[in-house]
Amino acid sequence: MHIGMIGLGAMGMHMARNLHRGGALAGLWNRTAEKAAALAAELDVQAFASPAELARRCDIIVICVSADADLRAVVTALLPGVQRGALLIDCSTVSANSAREMQALLTRHGADFLDCPVSGGVEGARLATLAIMAGGKPGAFERAVPTLNLLGRTITHFGDCGAGQAAKATNQIMCAGIIQVVAEAMAFAKAEGLPLDALIETLGKGAGSSWYFVNRAPFMAQQSYPAGFRVRLHDKDLRICRDMAAQKGATLPAVESTLALYEKLIAQGFGDEDISAVFRLTSSLFANSRAH
After folding, report:
1. Which of 132, 76, 66, 133 is nearest to 101 (CA)?
2. pLDDT tens for residues 135-163?
3. Per-residue model confidence as pLDDT tens digits over 78-98
4. Active site residue: 35, 168, 205, 236, which one?
5. Which fold has domain 166-286?
C-alpha cells in the first residue's frame, strides 16, 4: 500500500504515525506546511507540496480534517492528481450529505470514497484503538480494511455512503448527554467534599462508568482542560446532529441543552478547551456550597 495522509491535527498526527508503523505511509500533506515538514522529517517520509501531488503518488488517501468546508476544499484540491481506482478514506466528522457529495464527485473521476469517522479521542488515535464507522460500497470497504486495521480496533461497515457519518452522529448525541451528567456528578461530588481522585478510581469500575468518565473526570478534578476534543469541534458536530434530526422533523433535547452550554463556554473564551470544560459551568450550581 502507498498511503498518503492529509490533516495533521490532534487526531491526524497520531494516525499518520500509526500508518508509518504499519509500513504503509508514503507521505503527508497539511494546510500548515511546517507541521507536515516536521512530521515528515521525523518519520522519514515525503511532505508533498499539494494534495494533487500526494494523490499522484498514493493509491490510498486518508483524510482527517475539521469540518465540511475543509473536506470539500481538500477533495477539490486532490482531483487534478487523483488516480483512477484510488481510494479515499475520510475520517473527518462531517454531514452525511457532504459525504455523499464527495462520493459522487470522486466516482466521476474513477475513484472510490468511504466515510469513516472515528471515535476514541486523542488516546484512541495514539494507541490505534479507535472505533471506526464506515459507509460506502462494500468492495471499497473490503479494500480499506487493512488500512483501517492500522488505525483502530473496532471497524464496522454500516451501509452506503453517509451511513458512517450517521453512526458517528449517534455517538455524538450520546456524548452530549454523558458530558452533562458527568459534569453535574463531579460538581456534586466536589461540593460534598469527596476526594475526587479516589472517587474516580472507584466509580470508574461501577455501573455508572463510561469511557468519558474514566478519561475526562480527571480533567475536572484538576480543573485543567487540555484539548482532547475541543468544545468548538463538538459544537460543530452537534449542529450536524441537529440538522439531521430536523430533516426528520425531530428536536433532540440533549443536543439542544449541550449546545446552549457550549455557546456560553465559547462566549467566555473556552472554545478551544476540552469538552470536559462543561465542568466550569456545572460547578456554579453549587456556588453557595461551603465545601472545598
Report:
1. 76
2. 999 999 999 999 999 999 999 999 999 99
3. 999 999 999 999 999 999 999
4. 168
5. N-(1-d-carboxylethyl)-l-norvaline Dehydrogenase; domain 2 (1.10.1040)
| Sign, Cα dihedral of 154, 31, 9, 56 | positive
pLDDT band for position 211 (cuts 50, 70, 90):
very high
Residue 190 bears catalytic tag: no
3-state helix, strand, coil in the chain (%, to 5): 55, 15, 30
User: Which of 55, 119, 69, 54 lies closest to 91 in space, CA to CA?
Assistant: 119
pTM exceeding 0.90: yes
- Please provide the distance, in angstroms rounded to a whole number, between the alpha carbons at the two ends of the chain: 56
pLDDT of residue 228: 85
- Give the residue range(s) of CATH 3.40.50.720 domains in the chain: 3-160
CATH of domain 3-160: 3.40.50.720
Residue 31: DSSP 8-state: S
22 residue type, one letter: G
d(CA 132, CA 19) in angstroms, rounded, equals: 15
- Give the model's confidence band at 290: pLDDT under 50 very low, under 70 low, under 90 confident, else very high: low
